[in-house]
Amino acid sequence: MPFTFAAPDARALPLHVLEPDDLEAWTAQQSDFVRAWIGASSFKAALGTALMIPGPDGTPDRALAGYGSAKQRARTRFALAGAVAQLAPGTYRITEGLPTEDAATEALGWLLSGYGFARYSGALPTVPALVAPDGVDATRIEILANSEALTRDLINTPASDMGPVALEQAARDLAADFGAQIAVATGDELLEANFPMIHAVGRASVEAPRLIDMRWGTTGPTLTLVGKGVCFDTGGLNIKPGSSMGLMKKDMGGAANVLGLARMIMALGLNLQLRVLIPAVENSISASSFRPQDILTSRKGLTVEINNTDAEGRLVLADALAFADEEQPDLMISMATLTGAARVAVGPDLAPFFVDEDAVATALEKSGRRTADPLWRLPFWEPYEAVIEPGIADLDNAPSGGFGGSITAALFLRRFVTDTPRYVHFDIYGWQPSPAPGRTKGGFLQGPRAILDALPSLLNL
């Protein structure tokens, strides 16, 4: 179901957005009936509350939505979305009280409140319609909402229906929607095309490993997105315990996020040349599994000692990054559900990222705050480079010790990007652990809205 605003000329109920400190003054200006109605209710304009006010015939005439205090809103990404479920069915127009600087974010949160993963249950939340607030770019917000829905759907789909074949089809469908070109190397074609580590990680699966290569746009600066597409991760021969395997359908969250970002870019028609690379594999167990202590030779020629087959994401990304680096795009971004260490460092709500250039980091962090897509910079800490050098090979895919695991993984990836002027790596979680306003439990977009907002400054668009 597409996410859209109601037509501007739709008959809509007025919705007044109120903070607790403003409620008394607002109420004093209303009719005796409205003052009595509010006084008889428990409405205090608290965050996530709403009150319907009837007209003379008893049907809804207007509504109030609590916006809470600034301190409360700082703890909630989509503050107004919490009140949406409290409103009666219908169409609403925000008439007052919503700060101009919050309007775009709150309108997006309202649309996302209508998201539900209905592929298997058919159940979708019922959300009142909203006329886009004055001054916002309604088309852009609709594109953001529908692109996030794509990302969420891809992550939420179990591996039984979202293996490498299905992930390739999702990319092909997206390419067809926007006139993009797509090429895919599959199975032993990966060896012929010199992607040995993608092949090694995925060769044990029933569904052959593949590298998806999508291109769109013919003018403007060049942007390459690389997304980890591990459709399910058993851990390989270093098999995960059951408690760690339960969410591994989301291990293609990097791929889902770059596809969501690609959809935003193409739907908005940005003047750039976009490339999307997704190594799509399943890390399975069979007689052909790659093994601990194997030494793999990467596309770039660097050798990698395998000390844990459960650190496979960086292997498939490495070949894809080396391939992307050969074209030297103006900006390269990788996104991956790569390490548990990142979750320990910043939790599930923040998307940590790594970049060498301070100006790029500043632009991304500002955009994250502006778009309710929070980011946190972690360092490419060069003193840890020695940790990923095992001696027997050029690189170690899983250095012992456990310290700084997200940093050492990022350093590993950076070894494969030597000619591209700007490289940013995101180590995302891609999952909302519990429901929140505008965010259902499950697959989650992390980083793309902030990246999209920062692109004009990063690429001089």
From TrEMBL:
GO molecular function terms attached to this record: manganese ion binding; metalloaminopeptidase activity
Keyword Protease attached: yes
Entry GO CC: cytoplasm
UniProt KW keywords: Aminopeptidase, Hydrolase, Manganese, Protease
InterPro entries assigned: Leucine_aapep/pepB, Macro_dom-like, Peptidase_M17_C, Peptidase_M17_N_1
Xref: CDD domains: Peptidase_M17 (cd00433)
Annotated GO biological process: proteolysis
Domain of life, source organism: Bacteria
Location of the Cytosol aminopeptidase domain: 308-315
Presence of the UniProt keyword Transmembrane in the record: no
Family the entry assigns: Belongs to the peptidase M17 family.
Protein name per UniProt: Leucyl aminopeptidase
Species for this entry: Puniceibacterium sediminis
Source organism phylogeny: Bacteria, Pseudomonadati, Pseudomonadota, Alphaproteobacteria, Rhodobacterales
